[in-house]
């Protein structure tokens, strides 16, 4: 005769699977947050490169360039923008010139509140970029 009785399940068989799924979810959120931060840093870096090339031809970081870069950074959500360390005075051909940008940019951040609670909030991360080139004016 066949034994038709069911075997009782065990939480021990399900626990590793559930832990694996939770770990995968946490790792995915960490990766997404990291990539968002890298995208924002890359965007600021592209702007810095554009203005560094402009500085090459003009010989310094002009007031017009300062205002233009500030507007672009503010349109991306930046605040507390500083250009301390940049070359603002006109330089001769071949002189080393610098563009230093320090800005706080908004980064969306996803965090776990409770076991199943996920909250998305915006935090500000400071980004510092220092580019240098030689004047070619």
Keywords, separated by commas or semicolons:
137 residues, alpha+beta, 2 helices, 45% helix
The gist of it:
With 137 residues, this protein is of the alpha+beta class.
Outline the structure in words:
There is one protein chain. The protein is α+β, with helices and mostly antiparallel strands. The protein has two helices and three strands. The chain is 45% helix and 28% strand. The chain has a three-stranded antiparallel sheet, with helices on one face. α1 runs antiparallel to α2. The longest helix has 48 residues, at 11-58. It is rod-shaped, with a radius of gyration of 26 Å. The model has no long low-confidence stretch (mean pLDDT 87).
Distance between the termini: 97 Å
Which structural class is indicated by helix and strand composition?
alpha+beta
Number of strands: 3
Number of helical elements: 2
Task: Estimate the global geometry from the Cα principal axes.
Answer: rod-shaped
**Fraction in beta strands:** 25-35%
Q: Tell me roughly what share of residues is in helical segments.
A: 40-55%
Mean pLDDT: 87
Query: Main beta sheet: strand number and arrangement?
Result: 3 strands, antiparallel
- Rg over alpha carbons: 26 Å
Q: Low-confidence segments, ≥5 residues, pLDDT <50?
A: none
Biggest sheet, spatial arrangement of strands: 1-2-3
Query: Which H/E pattern describes the elements?
Result: HHEEE
């Amino acid at each position: 005769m066949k034994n038709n009785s069911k075997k009782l399940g065990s939480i021990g068989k399900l626990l590793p699977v559930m832990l694996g799924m939770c770990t995968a979810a946490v790792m995915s959120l960490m990766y997404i947050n990291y990539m968002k931060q890298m995208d924002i840093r890359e965007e600021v870096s592209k702007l810095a490169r554009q203005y560094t090339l402009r500085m090459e031809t003009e010989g310094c970081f002009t007031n017009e360039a300062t205002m233009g870069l500030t507007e672009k950074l503010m349109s991306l959500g930046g605040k507390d923008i500083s250009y301390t360390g940049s070359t603002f005075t006109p330089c001769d051909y071949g002189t080393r010139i610098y563009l230093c940008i320090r800005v706080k940019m908004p980064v969306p951040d996803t965090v776990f509140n409770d076991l199943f609670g996920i909250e998305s909030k915006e935090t500000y991360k400071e980004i510092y970029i220092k580019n240098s080139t030689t004047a070619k004016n």
